[in-house]
Every structure is written in structure tokens, then in C-alpha cells.
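Minutes, structural biology subgroup

Action item carried over from last meeting: produce the C-alpha cell record for Glycoside hydrolase family 13 protein (Glaciihabitans arcticus). EB confirmed the sequence was re-checked against the source entry. Recorded below for completeness.
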Amino acid sequence: MGKRVPHHDGSPLYVSTQTPELGDVVRVRVRVPSDFGPVHSIRTRSNPDHEPHFTDATLVASTGGWDWWEAPLRVENPVHGYRFLFVLEDGSTGWLGSSGYSLIETRDSEDFKFVSYPAPPPWAKNTVMYQIFPDRFARSSEADGRELPIWAEPAEWTDEPIHIGPSTARQFYGGDLLGIEQKLDHLVDLGVTMVYLTPVFPAHSNHRYDALSFTTVDPLLGGDDALISLVDAAHARGLSVIGDLTSNHSGDAHEWFTSSHLTPGAPESEFYYWLDPEQKSYVSWLGVPSLPKFNWAAPELRRRFIEGEHSVVAKWLKAPYNFDGWRIDVANMTGRYLDQDLNAEVRQTIRKTMIDVNPDTILLGESTNDALGDFEGDGWHGAMTYANFTRPIWGWLSKRVEKSWFFGLPYGTIPSYTGLDVFEAHQRFAAGFPWRVRLHNMNALDTHDTARFRTSALDGAVPVAFGMSVTLPGIPVVFAGDEFGLVGDDGEHSRSPMPWDERDASASTIDLYTQLIHLRRDHVALNEGGIRWLHAGEDVLVYVREHADECVLVVAARAAFDVEVELDGHPELLWGETDATDSRLWGDGPSFTVWRLPGIVLPSF
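Output recorded by EB:
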């Protein structure tokens, strides 16, 4: 990546507090290579109330070939942007923002950001998530005695998922909540810390995103008592559990919809978008008639669903259910239709309700593309998104498979990325988030909505890809079955039942995931530390997560590499097999290697 340049990322090394309030004076630091060139001055440039304001920085430390400058900033807006202006002794200038160092003025959207909204729960930045699709995870003996609804098409646990045609949403394996509870020890052994359950409410499909009620747990899963038992058992093992809500739509069998469909004047009529006076036709998610879209201009919908202690949002966070938070489905579309945009009001209301009921809860929102605009800390703590991690990693570490699936593109069009492309995509879509939002974005290789990464992965690439999931800023994600080496051609095909009888045969893959998950959990730099990229080449990426207590150096390679770097100390091998000195890294690929370096010791703020 060439000559070292100034660096700042919003992490605790660079910012005096991660929880500022309006009016607080926060001290920010920027590090400058000692060989960068004689610096005349450094100033911060903020934009409070959209009017530029500058403060002067002073040199506070010189260590390890870096000069550290510090400046005070007053937080004057809930999202307060700032950047650094450099003036060199030769009269030249430069700007440092979230997208990097630039010789020309950068856009406000590229500023670093303070966020004065209520902070995420402290435990969330140390999270490793495990996603469970309940119908396919584990089936208890109690499932045998349950009468199946008319929509369900029963399947044997070893049957292949039907992923094309009308039976896709009807194929029913009968996984239930007691089955999940009986397998919690597997999750503890794996090392994950959070269970994310896709919807548990009654519905007319196996995925349950077409809820017919939000006030009870599906009897096919064991009902309310089974959820209470599962969450209690998870908490006893140190696991948190979050649920899944569809804020964008209900099912067409939902009690609110059936009471208003073809019934003008019904109290629930204002909950949906009707296209004719008879309330026969309506707006739905992507035109799918079974998923009618909510109209969040309706005060009563807000009261029942998201606002106050008696709402749906609140109910499942309180005893006896005690969810630890929510993942919100289709968060990006919620409240948006034609000229109406109520997304901010909805997400802020959801979070206010959560704070009032239990502030020690997390709120994650699905946003499948560029998530930056909605994720500045006023509601969602982090994004379930694919642009900043998933898609770049797939592009770099996938084979050119003729009939491959790739996020809505025509089949066979997985892009071919270099490592530099991965770096640039990650910077473009991740660096603009406020730092504490960035720590809570989901680093998912795959989910229930995608093909499995392993399906088209290069030979030997899984350790590289999952290694990056656990070492880049964000929440690592394991979709149930990844640790067994499952494959799937698309989202529906990837929802395979867990092959518990093949656990021994999958021992090496399970061990790989276990080792990398514990690597993440054991090192504070990987949970809280900043990130600085050292090298991006066609076949190798090198970055370091930096913290006062330790630094962690990461090398992800898809082919043989030999690169020169400048390290602050001699590397101590933590995981992997490639070689390093304090100025050179080399080895074969695909490979993933992690070293420990000394922490960065600076004067206190």
C-alpha cells in the first residue's frame, strides 16, 4: 500500500470516550508517520449545524516511528462529523477522513463521527453470533405428537431442502425450541455467545416471516413455555438470545390484516396500504401477496407494535421471556413507500421502548446494501448487511462456478476481486459508520437468505474467510451448519437440517470454527481495538487491530505471498503457520495467520 500515511479510526486509542453526550468536550488523536514530512499544523474541521468550525491540535507523544497529535472537539449535534486538516512546512495541505488521506477536500459523508445517542449494551462488542433457523436446527421427541397445519408438507430430517417451487416455504421438518435447548452445549463448546433465532411466531410457512400473530410463540415450536425454557437455559450457560421481528410487513393471515381486508372502517385498516376503496388490493413486500406492508403513519399500529411497555417489542424483552434484543427484518424498507419515509421514527421508537424496558439489549437491522444512511446510532446498533464484508470476501475467495448464486445477480456472475478490491470495498462501505456502529455490524459469510459460502469457495479458503470474520471490526456470524461444512446453492437450499449424526465426520471443521471463535474472544484488540491496514495486494491482505493492551496482526492470503511491512515490535504467533519478522511476512496460500504485537502505550487523555 506504499508509504505510511496519517491514521485515525474512532476507536479508544484515538477518542477519549465512546459515549459522549451533547455539549461534552471530546479529545481526538491522529497519528502521523515520523517520515511523513515536516508538519506545520494539524487542525480538526467539524461541521456543527452545517457551519465549519476548526480546532488546533498539539503534539502529545512520539513513539514507534509515529507522532501523535491531539485536539479538543465539542459535540454539538447528535451525529457530529469531523476530519483532520494537515498543513505541511512546504505549504501543501491534506485531509484525513474515514475514506483515508486525500490531497483534496473530502465530502461531509466521509467524516469521522461522534454519536451522542444512547450507546449499545457494553457486552455486545464482545459477541459471536450463531444464527438458527428453528425448523431445521433440532427436533425434540415432543414434535412427534403435534398435529401439523394444513399448509405443512412433512419431510424427513435427512431429506434435501426443496429450494425451487411452491413447496419451498411449505416443506416442514419439525425443528422446535426444545430441540434447540437440547443442543445448547454444542454452542457453548463452539464458543459462540449469542443465539439469533429467526421468527418464532405462528405463520403459514416454515420461515415464519409471514406472521399471523406477534403475541404468542408458534405451538409447532412448543409455544410460549418452550421459549421461556430455552432462554432461561441459554442464559444459564452464558448465552444471550435475540429474536426476529418483521417491522415491514405481516402475513396475510395475521389477525390485524384479516380484520381489515375487505372491511373498510375496521380499526386496523390504517395499519396497511390499500389500493382501492373496498380494501381488496394492497401493497406488499416486493409484490408478494402473502406479505402485506405496514403503514407506520398509523398511531395505533405504533402503540400495539413498537411503542411503550405493552407493545410487541416490549413484551418479549420482559420476564418471563427475556429476549436480549431484536434483529429487525427488512429494516431498510420499513416505513418507506413512495413519498413517505418514516424509517427514522420507527427505529428510534423501537429503541426508546427497548431502553425503557431493558437498556441492556441490542437492536440490529437488516439492510442488504449500503447501510450507512440509516445506521448512525439513533436506533439500530448495527447492520445485517452484505456490502462491506460478505460480497467482497465472496468475490476474492470464490471459484468461478458456472451456475453460482450471488446476491441477485444473474447466475454465474460472482465477481472476480483482487485483495485490493476487497480493501477498497470494505473501506467504501464500512469506514463511514460511527466506530461503535461499525463494531456491531454483522460479519456474515452466509445467512438463511444466501447460498452457503463453502459451496463456491476456493479450496482451503474457509479458514481465510471465517478468520477475517472474527478479526475485522464487527460481530462474527456462524449460520447453523457452517461448522459442519454444509453447502447450499441459494438461500432456501442453504436451510438444511443440522446433520447431528455426522458430528464426528465434521470434527475437523467444527474444531476450526471453535479455534477461531476462541481466538476472537480471547483478545481484547479483536473486540475493541482499532484497525489499520498495512498491505493490500492481489493475493494477500494485512491489517492490525490495535489496542493499549495488545495489538493483533492478521495476514489473510489466497496464494503464496512475500511482503515487506513496518511492525511495531516482534510478532508472536497466535494461529496459523506462515512466517514473519518485524519487517517481512511470507508464506503459502490460501492461509490465515495471526500474531500478537505489543500494545500501544500513550499518555492518558
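Discussion: The chain has four domains: 25-115, 122-248+294-522, 249-293, 529-598.
Next step: EB to file the record with the rest of the batch.
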